[in-house]
Amino acid sequence: MILYHGSNVIVDRPKLIQQNRYLDFGFGFYTTTNKNQAISFANKVAKRRETGQNVVNIYKIDEAAAFSECSIPHFVEANEAWLDFVSDNRSGNYEGESYDFIFGPVANDDVYRIFTLYTAGVLTKEQTLEQLKIKKLYSQLVLTSEKALSYLHFVGTVLEEGF
Questions:
Q1: Is the Cα dihedral 113, 118, 119, 122 positive or negative?
Q2: pTM of the prediction?
Q3: What average pLDDT score do residues 83-94 get?
Q4: Side-chain half-sphere exposure of 80, counting CA atoms within 13 A
Q5: Which residue from 139, 27, 144, 143 is spatially nearest to 78, judged by alpha carbons?
Q6: Distance (Å, rounded) from C-alpha 124 to C-alpha 16?
Q7: Per DSSP, which regions of the chain are E strands?
Q8: Between residues 162 and 128, which one has the greater pLDDT?
Q9: Starting at the edge strand that comes first in sequence, how are the strands of the sheet with 139-143 ordered?
């Protein structure tokens, strides 16, 4: 499996760095299977940090070996279990099991408004899931342990002044 990580710097040796905000799948090193998603994120990070350049880091992982030897929930789609997991993580209230990897759809900017309406209580869980069905959600793989990182192999980067 080929994975991408958008940043403002080259990340040839990924590390687990504590985040200052709550993310979809909690703490970890975030990658995506979609290059365009990584490009978009690289643009946002470079603009937000006002330093570096747009960098898409490319990795490969032997998913058969990694996933058979590590713990991983695999959310195939944006279903009720995924919505509960992401909502709990984004609110900082997740208290469930710890995993080495987490795989599933990205709750990206396209669905941010829907999530905001759901967490504000405007949309029910059923309405939220119905709205998410019409969105194209890309997959992300989050590495949350040193064990998981040991399976990730840096391939190279794509550097651009602007995408």
A1: positive
A2: 0.89
A3: 91
A4: 4
A5: 139
A6: 34
A7: 2-7, 29-32, 54-61, 101-105, 139-143, 152-160
A8: 128
A9: 101-105, 139-143, 29-32, 2-7, 54-61, 152-160
